[in-house]
Design a protein that fits this description.
By secondary structure, this protein is mainly beta. The protein is about 10% helix and about 55% strand. The protein has 2 helices and 13 strands, in the order αβββββαββββββββ. The protein is globular and about 45 Å long.
Length: about 230
């Protein structure tokens, strides 16, 4: 009986290990590692800086889990928001908090500081694990992020990211280096009591790094905002 239990436990361990190996991690996995991203308006003017620092790295039955601290500042260096985000593997797929949306000035600039976020997690599939092995047929989650002022909860925005789809695999050059990336297109809608903003965007994400570039456009195909990875420390 004991031998059967032991064999079953070993089988479960090997299965968990295989699932962990199958999951491509799209974020740094070294404690103390740091990513610095800068956000610009459509004319190339600096808007803000988002800095992520890996705080904790741990193992789960299905892979690795990472917690990172983030600090979002405006171009003058004033802290707009800070907190933490989680990135992890689950059943062979990678997921991450959507707090990066905070770096978009059209979503948070009019709220200034002292904001709160109720965010969603969103998946980042690996092209190698797609049904065809070339990215076609990959499944992408939708996400909903709620941002509100801690001083006035009626001052709020609900941001939907939806209709995400694989575009291609390509190299992207950034100040932090050149990365082999998966390119994804998505639609985005921001709703508040004052207005509704709609558009679409593209993001490029790379293994062990995450999103290295993000571009957002309005429905007239005009570039509104973009972020780019500046440093990997």
């Amino acid at each position: 009986m004991k031998s059967k239990v032991l064999l079953a436990s070993l089988a479960l361990l090997f299965t968990a290990g295989a699932m962990a190996q199958d999951c491509t991690f799209f974020f740094p996995q070294t404690q103390g590692a740091q990513l610095v991203k800068k956000g610009y308006d459509g004319k190339g003017n600096l808007i803000g800086v988002m800095t992520y620092t890996v705080d904790e790295v741990g193992n789960t039955p299905t892979g690795i889990e990472v917690e990172a601290d983030y600090i979002f500042t405006n171009k003058a260096g004033t802290v707009i928001d800070k907190g933490d985000l989680d990135a992890y593997c689950q059943n062979g797929e990678f997921f991450m908090d959507m707090k990066e949306v905070l770096s978009n000035p059209s979503f948070v600039s009019d709220m200034q500081s002292d904001i709160a976020v109720v965010d969603d997690v969103i998946n980042y599939p690996s092209v190698a694990n797609s049904p065809s092995g070339d990215g076609q047929g990959m499944y992408f989650d939708d996400a909903l992020i709620r941002i509100y002022s801690k001083k006035n909860k009626k001052d709020r925005k609900n941001i939907s990211i939806y209709d995400r789809e694989y575009v291609t695999t390509e190299q992207v050059q950034t100040p932090a280096g050149t990365f082999d990336c998966t390119k994804v297109k998505y639609k985005i809608k921001s709703r508040s009591p004052k207005e509704t903003i709609e558009g679409y965007g593209y993001e490029w994400y790379a293994p062990n790094i995450g999103v290295v570039r993000n571009e957002q456009y309005n429905n007239n195909n005009q570039l509104q905002y973009y972020t780019v990875l500046e440093e990997v420390k």
